[in-house]
Design brief:
Chain lengths: ~230, ~475
C-alpha cells in the first residue's frame, strides 16, 4: 500500500508539469530568484547590532577579552546565581582547553542530566540580524545541553559573528561540507518563553529560564553601552 | 477531528453571548495586529520579503515532484524512514504501528496542526497509549478536553482563573496559590518535565522541509518541540508536502515572515533543523526517526483554482485581523483551522456541504489579504467558494429564490431605479420623526441588534447624480 500511495502522489505532482525540467535548469531558475534581503540592523556596527538583538531577545550579555576572562565571567555568574561552581559542558576541544582553574569553575564534560542547573555551549556562530547563536548537536554540544538546564551559558567568538541568516548558512555549508551533516542545527535566540496564558510573556517555559551570552574577543566596552542605548552611536 | 462546521451560525450566536470571551477577543484583535505591524515596520522592506517568498513558492510548486524527490532521497540518506499517507487514517495508523513496533506506552507531542487535522490523539488513546501535548496552550486544552481556538495560541480563549481551576483539579500537588501566569508556567514546566524524560516516542510537526539537505525546520518559543525531538528514543515528524522549500535560506526567509506575522518577534527562541537519527558523534537524540508526509486532498487542491491556500504558513495573522474571527472566536468554526485561512481550508479538506457557511463568514474587508505574509488572495478564494456554494445549490431554496430575484432586478436598471426611488421616499417619510427604525419587515436580523437609519432627503445616488449632471456636469 505504502509504495502505491507514494507513486500516486508523485504521479499527481508530475501531472502539473508535463515536461519535467532538467535539474540544472531548475537550479538556474532558482538562482535567478536569489535570496531575500535581511532585516534592518539596529546598529551599523556588526557586534553592537548582535549585542542589541541578544538583549532584545531577553538574553543577558557580557564581554570577555579572552578565554581567561571568559572563565572568570562564568565563575562569577555561577557563584552569583547558584553559589556553586558546577557546570556541564559538551566535549568541545575549545572548552577542554580553557583555563578553568583561573575562574574556579568545575565543569563536567558530557550530556546534561535532569539535575544540572547550568550548561555551557561554545557556539559555532552568532547572527547579528536576529541575535541568535548557532550550535550543532554532537559530542561537542549534546542537544539536551541547550534545553534541560535552568541557565544556558553560551560563548561566542567575536570573529564568528556574521551579519545575516544567509551569511550564517554560507558558513554552515562550509563547516558541514567536509564531514557528515549533524543531527541537529539549532539557532537559539533567548531563554525559552511562552505567551500561551493571557498572551503574557513568561521566560522559562520548557527550556532554560535564563540565557547568558559571553562575547569573546576584543570588543570595546562602549559597544555594550551603545547596544543598551546608554551611549549614542559614534 | 470531527467536523462541526455545519453548525457555524448557531455556534457563532452562542459565542457572541459570552460577554467575557467577547472582551478577551476584542483585546486580542487590538494587541496582535499592533505587535505584527511594529515588527513588520521594524523589518524594513517587509512587502519585498513577502513578494520574494511568493516567487520562491511559485518556483517550488512548479517543480514540486523534483523537490519532493530531492528531499526524500536526502532524508533517507540521513537515515530517516520516509512514509507517505494519502488520508488522515493512513497517517494515524502509520504512527500507531511505529509506536506498537517499539512497544511504546508514552508519547510526548509538540504542537502539530496536521495531527489535529487527522485526529491522531484519539486513535492513540483508544489503542491504550498515553498521549501528552507539551506546548503549554495545547496542554491546557488537552486537559480541558477542548479543541484549539487559535492556530498559534490554542488556549487564548482561556482566562488565568480558568487555567488555575483546571490545574488545581488536574494536578494533585496539594495546597498552593497558583495566582500568576508565572506560577502556571512553572507548574506546567515541572509536571511536563518528568513526562518528557519518560516518553518513549516524540511527535512533532515541521514548519518547512528543506529539499537540498533533507532536513525539517522546527520553529518554537517554548522549547517543547525540541525536547520532543531530542529526548525520546523514537521521533516521528508529521508533516505535508507543501512545506517543501528548495534551500535553507528559503526556510530562513519563511521564518522571518512567520515570526513577525505570528507574534511580532524578530526571531523565535528555537529554530532547529533536524536531519535524522543519532550519528556516530552524538551522545543523545533519537535512535530512529520517521517522517510522514500527509496528502489528505492537498494534491487535489494543488490541481485546483484554490492552490494558493497551500502557501499558507500557519502564522495566524489573518485570524487576528479578521472581524468575524475576533467576533465569534475559533471554536465557532467547528474544525481545526478557523478564521479566513480556515474558511478556505475547511471546505477543501472536509467538504463544502458540511462547511459552506464558513466562506460566508466574511465581510470582504480585505484585511486578511493585506497582512497575509504568503500573499494569499483570501477574499478572492472565499468569494470563489461562495460561488461554488451557489452552483451546488447548498443554500436553502428560499434564499436562492431571493438571490435570483435580486439578480434579475439588478439587470433591469429602469425598474430598479424606480423601485429604490419609491421605497426610499416612503422610508424617508415614515422615518422622518425619529430618523431611524426600530423594527422593519424582512429585516428583523438587522433590527434585532441595531436601528435601521431612515434615508435622508435628496433621493437615491442615481437621482442626485442625474440632478448634478443637469446643473452643469460638474464633477465633485
Amino acid at each position: 500500500m505504502a509504495e502505491s500511495v507514494r507513486a500516486a502522489l508523485f504521479a499527481r505532482l508530475r501531472e502539473r508539469s508535463p515536461a519535467p525540467a532538467e535539474p540544472a535548469e531548475i537550479a538556474r531558475a532558482l538562482a535567478t530568484i536569489g535570496y531575500a534581503t535581511a532585516a534592518r540592523m539596529p546598529h551599523a556596527d556588526l557586534h553592537t547590532a548582535f549585542i542589541a538583538n541578544v538583549l532584545a531577545n531577553k538574553g543577558t550579555l557580557e564581554l570577555a577579552l579572552d578565554r581567561g576572562a571568559a572563565v572568570r565571567a562564568i565563575g562569577r555568574y555561577l557563584y552569583k546565581r547558584f553559589r556553586t561552581h558546577k557546570l556541564v559542558a559538551g566535549n568541545d576541544p575549545r572548552l577542554a582547553a580553557m583555563p578553568w582553574r583561573d575562574g574556579g569553575v568545575l565543569p563536567r564534560f558530557g550530556a546534561a542530566e535532569p539535575g544540572d542547573a547550568a550548561a555551557l555551549s561554545y557556539a559555532r556562530l552568532g547572527v547579528a540580524e536576529t541575535g541568535a547563536i548557532v550550535t550543532f548537536t554532537g559530542r561537542a554540544n549534546p542537544g539536551r545541553n541547550n534545553l534541560l538546564p535552568e541557565d544556558h551559558l553560551v560563548l561566542v567568538n567575536r570573529e564568528d559573528v556574521v551579519a545575516t541568516l544567509e551569511d550564517a548558512w554560507a558558513k554552515i555549508r562550509i563547516e558541514t561540507g567536509a564531514g557528515a551533516w549533524p543531527r541537529g542545527i539549532q539557532f537559539i535566540a533567548g531563554p525559552s518563553s511562552t505567551a500561551d496564558v493571557e498572551a503574557q510573556l513568561v521566560l522559562g517555559a520548557h527550556g532554560p529560564c535564563r540565557w547568558h551570552v559571553i562575547l569573546v574577543g576584543d570588543t570595546p566596552a562602549q559597544a555594550l553601552e551603545q547596544a543598551r542605548g546608554e551611549l549614542p552611536e559614534a | 477531528m470531527k467536523v462541526a462546521s455545519q453548525d457555524f451560525l448557531q455556534q457563532a450566536h452562542e459565542a457572541l453571548r459570552a460577554k467575557d470571551k467577547v472582551e478577551r477577543r476584542d483585546l486580542l484583535g487590538q494587541f496582535m495586529p499592533a505587535a505584527r505591524d511594529a515588527a513588520a515596520n521594524a523589518y524594513g522592506d517587509f512587502d519585498g520579503l513577502r513578494a520574494h517568498m511568493k516567487r520562491v513558492r511559485g518556483h517550488t510548486t512548479e517543480h514540486l515532484a523534483h523537490y519532493l524527490q530531492q528531499f526524500e532521497e536526502a532524508a533517507v540518506a540521513h537515515g530517516n524512514q520516509v512514509h507517505f499517507a494519502a488520508t488522515a487514517e493512513q497517517l494515524n495508523s502509520t504512527v500507531l504501528s511505529i509506536c506498537q513496533t517499539h512497544n511504546a506506552r508514552r508519547v510526548a507531542k509538540g504542537k502539530s496542526m496536521v495531527t489535529e487535522e487527522t485526529g491522531l490523539n484519539e486513535l492513540l488513546l483508544k489503542a491504550g497509549l498515553e498521549v501528552l501535548e507539551t506546548d503549554l496552550g495545547e496542554y491546557i486544552i488537552q486537559q480541558a478536553g477542548e479543541a484549539p481556538s487559535h492556530i498559534v495560541g490554542p488556549a487564548f480563549h482561556k482566562s488565568l482563573a480558568e487555567v488555575r481551576e483546571l490545574f488545581l483539579a488536574k494536578h494533585k500537588l496539594g495546597e498552593r496559590a497558583l495566582e500568576s501566569v508565572s506560577d502556571i508556567v512553572e507548574e506546567a514546566r515541572g509536571v511536563l518535565r518528568e513526562r518528557f524524560l519518560a516518553a518513549d516516542v516524540g511527535i512533532i510537526g515541521a514548519n518547512a522541509l528543506i529539499a537540498e539537505h533533507g532536513t525539517t525546520m522546527l520553529v518554537t518559543n517554548e522549547g517543547n518541540g525540541d525536547l520532543c525531538a531530542n529526548l525520546p528514543p523514537v521521533l516521528i515528524i508529521c508533516t505535508t508536502f507543501e512545506r517543501l522549500l528548495p534551500r535553507a535560506e528559503d526556510a530562513m526567509a519563511l521564518q522571518r515572515l512567520l515570526v513577525r506575522s505570528a507574534t511580532g518577534q524578530s526571531h523565535t527562541c528555537y529554530t532547529s533543523f533536524y536531519s535524522g537519527p543519532r550519528r556516530e558523534d552524538d551522545v543523545d537524540g533519537p535512535l530512529e526517526t520517521h517522517i510522514i508526509l500527509l496528502d489528505n486532498k492537498r494534491s487535489d487542491i494543488l490541481a485546483s483554482d484554490y492552490h494558493e491556500i497551500l502557501d499558507c504558513i500557519r502564522c495566524g495573522a489573518c485570524l487576528n485581523h479578521c472581524p468575524i474571527y475576533i467576533g465569534v472566536g475559533g471554536h465557532a468554526y467547528g474544525w481545526v483551522y478557523p478564521g479566513p485561512m480556515g474558511s478556505v481550508l475547511t471546505p477543501l479538506l472536509t467538504s463544502l456541504e458540511q462547511s459552506h457557511d464558513l466562506p460566508n463568514a466574511c465581510t470582504s474587508c480585505g484585511r486578511c489579504a493585506e497582512v497575509c505574509p504568503a500573499n494569499i488572495p483570501l477574499p478572492d478564494l472565499l468569494r470563489d467558494l461562495r460561488q461554488e456554494e451557489s452552483a451546488q445549490q447548498l443554500k436553502p431554496a428560499r434564499w436562492r429564490r431571493g438571490l435570483r430575484l435580486h439578480a434579475w432586478l439588478l439587470r433591469q436598471p429602469v425598474l430598479y431605479q424606480r423601485l429604490t426611488g419609491w421605497s426610499m421616499s416612503a422610508l424617508g417619510l415614515l422615518g422622518k420623526r425619529r430618523g431611524a427604525f426600530r423594527r422593519m419587515p424582512f429585516a428583523s436580523g438587522w433590527t434585532s441588534q441595531r436601528d435601521f437609519p431612515a434615508p435622508e432627503a435628496g433621493g437615491t445616488f442615481m437621482r442626485q447624480y442625474a440632478a448634478r449632471k443637469r446643473r452643469g456636469g460638474r464633477r465633485g
